[in-house]
Write a structure and sequence with these properties.
globular; mainly alpha
Length: about 220
């Protein structure tokens, strides 16, 4: 007769030879870590590494189609590709248009000001190709457009002016990194911008003069 409620534990011993119970303690840890890695990968944002891995499944036609879709998705992408591939007569024009739109908006049309978006245009160009002469042109153009805006509306916004001072200093640094023979035209424009500082107020003129003379002294010591 079998007695109810009594279990022969020896019948469970073979389970240790196969299945989960037979695996060494380190194996349990490996399985757990693997599961946690899967969970983390589902909870984190994709990175370039993920994109690069996914692109391995594309053939030539697939990659061309992907680039075409990116090209048509936004004007920023078009400007990036034109600059990177050296296409068009004026690769800086779309970046200048973006700078002008955001740093010198049409207030009568209710267009907002955005220093960050104007600066992003320069950053986008730098990512696309980043030629030093192009960077000099865009940063100086930013200053020229900003002064045109300030002189037309007499705005006195400290954050806007602080960004202008930083961009002027950045322009001088970029121009100073050009070969000496290529600096003169840019320096003439920066000199005219400096003279316009007296019309703005705040501490713009003082800061511009300080940045200008520091740059001139550095060039003379070369």
């Amino acid at each position: 007769m079998h007695r109810l409620g009594i279990v022969d534990l020896t019948n469970m011993l073979p389970m240790r030879k196969s299945g989960i119970l037979s695996q060494p303690r380190g194996a349990h840890k490996s399985i757990f870590e693997g599961l946690m890695a899967v969970v983390r990968s589902k909870n984190t944002s994709p990175t370039w590494s993920d994109v690069r891995t996914a692109l391995l499944d594309f053939d030539r036609a697939g990659l061309r189609g992907l680039v075409q879709d990116l090209y048509t998705a936004s004007k920023d992408n078009q400007a990036f590709l034109h600059a990177r591939l050296g296409l068009g007569d004026d690769q800086l024009q779309p970046f200048k248009a973006s700078i002008s739109r955001w740093i010198s908006p049409d207030l009568m049309k209710g267009q907002p000001i955005s220093v960050s978006k104007a600066k992003k245009a320069i950053a986008d160009y730098k990512k696309a190709i980043g030629r030093t002469d192009g960077m000099a042109e865009l940063s100086i153009f930013y200053c020229e457009e900003a002064f045109g805006f300030l002189e037309s509306c007499s705005m006195d916004d400290e954050k806007y002016l602080a960004a202008l001072i930083r961009m002027y200093g950045q322009s001088l640094e970029i121009v100073s990194s050009l070969p000496p023979a290529e600096r003169s035209t840019y320096l003439e424009r920066l000199g005219r911008i400096r003279s316009r500082g007296r019309n703005v107020g705040w501490v713009v003129e003082e800061e511009f003069n300080s940045l200008w003379y520091d740059a001139v002294d550095e060039q003379q010591s070369e």
